[in-house]
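Practice set, problem 2.
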Amino acid sequence: MNRESFWFLAGLIAAHPDGRVLGRLRLQRTAYLLQRAGFPSNYLFSLFFGGPYSDGLFAELRMLVQWEVVRETKQDGEAEEPDFLIEAEQSMIPADVRQEVARFGEQIGAVAKSDALILDLAATYFAFRELGSNHDAALQSLKRQKGSKWKPEREAAALGLLASLRLPVTEPVAS
C-alpha cells in the first residue's frame, strides 16, 4: 500500500455528499468505475458474483478506519448483510489530494446519485467488458449473473451511467 492510494480513497469518500458512502459494496463499485475513468488509484479488482471487488481497497479502508481518518458505522436494516455508513471529512485529507479528487467531482456526483442497483449493473457490465466480452456478450453475461435484478430500463440506466463517466459502452475497452 502506498501513501497516495489510501489518501485518495479517503478523499473519494469525503468528496461524496455529506462525506458519506452507504455500503462497502457501493464503495467498491464506485472506486472501480472511477479508477477506470482515470481516478488516481491502482486497486486490483476481481469479478465476483456481486461484481468487481478489491481486497486491497478493503485493506486500505480498514487501515483508514484504524487510523481514525474514516469512520465506519454498522447500519441496521432489512438486508441479509448489514450496510456500513462510511464517512470522511475533507479537513482530514491533505490539500493536494483534495485538489486532485476535485477534478473528478462531476463523475463522483454522478455515481453518488445513482441507485445502488444501477451502480451494481454498471460495474458488473464493465467488468465483463474488461474481461474481453464485446457489448452484446457482456449484456448477456450481466443478465445471467444478475437474474431478476436485470430489467431493460435498469440496463439502460447503467449504460447511461457509464456514458456519463465517459467509459466506453459499445466500442472496445482498452486493457
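Problem 2, part (b): a different protein.
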Amino acid sequence: MFSRNKKPSVPSRRLATPEPSSSVDRGSQFRRNRTLSGVRRDPMDPSHSPRSKVHHLTNQRRKLTGIFLLVVIAITLLVLVITQLTARVVIAGSSTAVTTAIDSTRYEKVINDYLGVHPASRFRFALDQKDLSSYAAAAVPEVSRITQNGSTHLVETKFIITFRQPVAGWQINDKQYYVDDQGIVFEKNYYQTPTVQIIDESGISPEQGSAVASARLLSFVGRVVALAKGSGYEVTQAILPVGTTRQLEIRFKDVQPLVKLSIDRGAGEQVEDTVRSLRFLTSKGQSAEYVDVRVSGRAVYL
C-alpha cells in the first residue's frame, strides 16, 4: 500500500532554488569580472588619472596656441595695412638738373585724383605705376613717369616724378610750347630752355585752333631732333619757310647744306634720307646749298 505523502526521489539539494524577487535591475547588479559602466568622473577631480590630466592639459594648450596665432595674424595684417596705406602724397623730382621749383600741389592733386578713381591703389603693393604714369601724362603732359619710392612717415608715400626734357620750343600767341625727343608737346618746362627754337618766317598769323597744327609740327621737330642726334647730327635751327606751315628747314651743326623736310612724310624716313645724302656729299667732296628730302626715294641737291 502506497502513502500519498511520499516524498520525491530527487534529493532536495538538486532542486532549483527559486530566485528571490528584487526591485533592483539585474543589469545594474555587480558581477564578478565585469567592467562597471555609467561611471563618470570630473576631469578636475584629484582622483582623475594622470593620463587623463595630460590629455586635458594638451587640449587646453592647443586652444590657447590657436587663439594666440589668430591674434598675431590679426595684428600683422593690421600693421601691414597701416604701413602700406597712402593717406598723404609727397612729391620729389627725379633729376638734379631741374632748374625751376616743382609745383608739388599740381602733381599731388593729379595723384590723389587717380587714387580716388582707384581706391585699392592706396595700398602701395596694389599700385599700378605704369597706369598712374599714363593717367598723369594725360592730365599734365610734362610728366614722363611717376615712380613710387617708399614712405617718409607712417601713412605718407613718396612719389618720384620724371619730367620731360625739351629738345625744341616754339612760341605761339605769346605762349611757349616745348617738345621732347618722343614728340610729346607740353607747356611747363623744368629744365633749361632748349637751344632749338622754331623760327617762324611763314608770315602766317596764328589763328584760333592753330594750336592743333602747331602741336603736330612741334612733335615732328622733336622727332627729327632726336633721330638726327642718334645718327650723329645736332640740330641747331628749325625754320618755317615763307608761306607754309607744312614744311620745315633744318640746319645742322657744322653742316653747310640746309635740309628741307615735310611734316606730311614720316620723320624717320626723312632723317634716314638726309643722313644718307649728307654722307654721300661728304664722300664725294661736294657741297650744296640745300638738300631736299620731301619726296620719298628721291633727294635733290643744289
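Answer key, part (b): The helical segments are 50-84, 104-117, 129-139, 210-230, 267-284. Residues 165 and 298 are 34 Å apart (CA to CA).
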